[in-house]
Queue: 2 jobs
Job 1
Amino acid sequence: MVFGKVEVCCVSSTAAALFGMFAGMRWRRSREEQEKAKVMEIPPPTRAASASRIRRAPSITGLEFPPSSKDSHYLSAPGELVDSADMSQSQPMALRNQAGKTRFTTMKVIFVMVGLPARGKSFISMRMQDFLNWIGLESKIFNVGQHRRQAETREQNAKYFDASDTRAKSSRDALAFEVLEELFDWLDARHQGAAIFDATNSTAERRRAVQQRCKDHDPNFSVIFVESFCNDKDVVEANIRLKLTKSPDYQGVPYEQARADFMARIKNYESVYETLDDTGIKENELSYIKLINLSSHLVAHRVYGLAATAVLPYLMALHVGTRSVWLVRMGRSSDKPCHAISDPRHQFGDLPLSDEGEDFTRRVAAHFANKPDMSAAKLLICSHRRAKAMAQLIDPEGGRTSVRAFLNPMDWGVYEGVRRNDFAQQTDPEFYDAFTKDPVNTRFPGGESYGDFVRRLLPVLVEIEQQVVPCIVIAPLNTLQVLSCYFSRLDLREASEIDFPQHSLIEWRPHSGRFAKRKLLIDDLPRPPAGDNQPIKKVGLVPSIGSIRYMKGPSG
């Protein structure tokens, strides 16, 4: 296996999270293993030469990568010789050390898209932008095609994309690097950020030029290439139809004429297309993520840090399915807990449904029962009693329901139970001032910040995105507000202002690369069939309830 490269095919959300974790881990050996390695004679897997001594890589600044070695355990960079048991100064470890020095709060990263037309690059760019913004890393897409349509005066039919037309190629390259300069200006003006360079970048020559421009402008920029490689004919055909109906290039052009021109454009790109591949000598030094048929097969090469722990699992979850995501606010609670729990912070998790909450639950169950596509829906619920009671009516056998404690409310520490509107009067002035200035990163004393909350919810979002069947999420108000920021593309600072009334549910359906919203209130839901008014079965206490903090009061 090449050091720094991982491949994975079609895995579950749990495996996706583990993959991201392991992709970002540093390689270490204990002292005992190092001593043992000194006396063991293990022939190298890809070379006949001895591996007992390797060359020390130069410092990461201005690092030049060897062009010939497939297995980067073996280094050919000039420098002093060190014992093979000490890998701390090797080239792979230098790369990882550089990634480790990149802090989340100072990160500036450029994602460079790669791929033929109609392969989903813009779809991936849009979704990746929404995700990065949601986790707190401001991001922006820089689309070369949009700039070309605005700046280019020549006719831009298929002949314009002919690689043998040197004049057109020079024009396309110049336009692409104009956009790259705009990208640099945007990143330079920020303390942190993620810029997405959306273009075909279909040759190794172009990618090397982009990499070099980024390095020359600021060697501290992290550059990660993201290729969408697709050879699934059905997916490509669907993308072509979407492109022809949405692209400004073919606005007002008859469909058959537009299709013939676009297919000719694709052939021009295919004639020079070079896919990212580290088996050769051209691009082994690049950091890249390669998506094959979107998320069915993923290759990660020299990807570390936040990109490995957050972006990789997210990209593995993406697909072009049209399943809906339903966010359901837990039904209203009664005022009395089912068990004698003295701590008011824990009563919230034990409060049963009120009569109104039971009526809402029955209506929600009847609503989903009337929709054939919801018979296989996946339920993700928090660990509260009311959520379990609601899930029990929707999924009586429980085979489609998973309890996720990550969905429990945000922990407000010593201010549990204080309503958002009362912060000015009931919190410490110093805390309130800090929270007003930075509501995302200011941590509640003894509790979480909104940034912490997002990182807690990240595995759940990946699991939601990975579902190919409808997904129902039952959770308290502030959890649904934070999740809604992702689907609605709102700033996390606006989470507490999102309107999510008691006894309501919101459907998010994929639409044009993003999500369309539909809100249903209790009066929009059908009444349950006559005679279906038996009391909802009381569920047991949530395990380990004493170790979980909850917001106080019946308003969750």
Note: Residues 24-84, 99-106, 541-555 have pLDDT under 50 and may be disordered.
Job 2
Amino acid sequence: MADSVPKPTNNLVGPLLTDLYQITMAYAYWKTNQSHRPAHFELFFRKNPFGGSYTLFAGLDEVLKFLSNFRFSEDDIEYLRNTAQLSHCEAAFFDEYLANLDCSEVIVHAIKEGSMAFPRVPLITITAPLGIGNLIETTLLTLVNYPSLVATNACRMVVAARGQFWEETAGANPPRAVVPPRTDSTGASHRTPRKSIQMAEGGLADFSRRKPKCVEFGLRRAQGPDGGFSASKYSHIGGFHATSNVMAGKILNMPIAGTHAHSFVQSYTSLSLVEGAAVKRAKSEGGEGGDMVNLLPLVMKYRNELGWNDTNDGELAAFVGYAVSFPNVFLCLVDTYDTLQSGLRNFILVSLVLDDLGYTPRGIRLDSGDLSYLSLECEYVFHEMADRFGRPFFYDLDIVASNDINENILHSLNKQGHGITMFGIGTNLVTCQSQPALGCVYKLVEIDGEPRIKLSNDIEKVLIPGRKVAYRLFGESGWPLLDLLVGSNEVDQPVVGERTLCLHPFMEQKRVAVIPKRVVKLHNLVFDGKNGVVSEQLSTLSETRQFVNDQINHTRPDLLRYVNPGEYKVSVSEETFRFLHKLWHTETPVRELR
């Protein structure tokens, strides 16, 4: 079964990556001859994270790798045999049961990876003998909880970074703004608008500008190597463009990004360190390149021409050193000493020379200070340089911003206005600072074909019993209206064009009638016991990322709101509602008062 399926990316993922009580229960099931009873489990969550209205499902690929390769090794069994908690267990449990246990009798259905998911709708359903179904619980939860959380966090940040660009976030037709041409000091008209004028929310919208991208910078702040790698992977699914994590780039074949740190700038102390630093000319007046050109004299010529002789010499030397090393991707961190009076100006001096030699500079990075004000000022100066020197590349430079950015700051920047084209986000993305856990649960809903219920004084924790089929019902607008849970044995399943009564699981008075224009069954078979992974249900990382983007483009705008987002309904059929409450009454003891 595991021959064609790679092992889990993390070598720690295996049968022992579980909680002890899964193994003690497995022994008790085996001891009492319960291990082979047919059971049905559901993995789901009860509340969307970050105060939002949706969650992105992620981690399915690693779940399937784990199931395909599930097998206790001899070392695993020897370790368990000698633990204090299990040392009294019968030898046959280890030598006959665990030694031969795999997932050949496990059947898994799941929603598509990258799907927008909602509370109580199962992400994964597992049909399996009770023993093995119990043993895989903790591992499945750890393989789904954090990936889904960080993918959702990333998606929310991408939506926030895009601001009011509705065609990217809500799937609606954006309004068309007419941006008048601007005129420079010579009276010349320029069709390219200043982006800074357009950015504040509620102001004139410039839909021709680039939508800000997000890059993941969180490895050094993540919870260990696996947290860092997982964040790189699943933030890409959530819409992040690239990662600074080189190992993730190698393993996942995803874009990597990065330039230099403040220490690089600090390490250059004088211009003498880059005397003779040369770069090969990319073009000449005759159209041919190849000769080596010493950068520093040309840079100093522009410095004198512009009268910027008081910029930091060490910083200028660092930028020259970086330019000769990476002339095609010249992007500098400009806030080591003074962003506007030194860093920005030094970048411009070197960029002018690179442009003369046939290279196109990439941009700057801001890592401190008032990001709104500084980005607008930098952008303004870039446009002035474009007009003064006739260098259109200045209009296309990236302004990258980092420095403890989170979702709230992204929305705040949109309100203030900014000229940022790319956000580098680390700590608040990978640590999911505003909510550190998703809270997925794994529950038994059926045993021996008999539905089971779990009751609680907390209504949120009451389990909807039995096997269920989940549907997504779409309305006339093309947006999904609600998700509907229907008992698997019910005769009446939702049909396009037919009226369907949908009820809140616990409040009968909250109900709606839906005549769907489209009905989508959410779960598909992804793992088929002895036959293993159903390959046609799997997607590549890039395909999943595109699937997420497509869903965001066709989601109700109110579900994407940062403040007071709309609520997405998860309903049950009338028959499921009646059965749930009947079983609830049956299983609840009746108190006697005397």
Note: The mean pLDDT is 90.
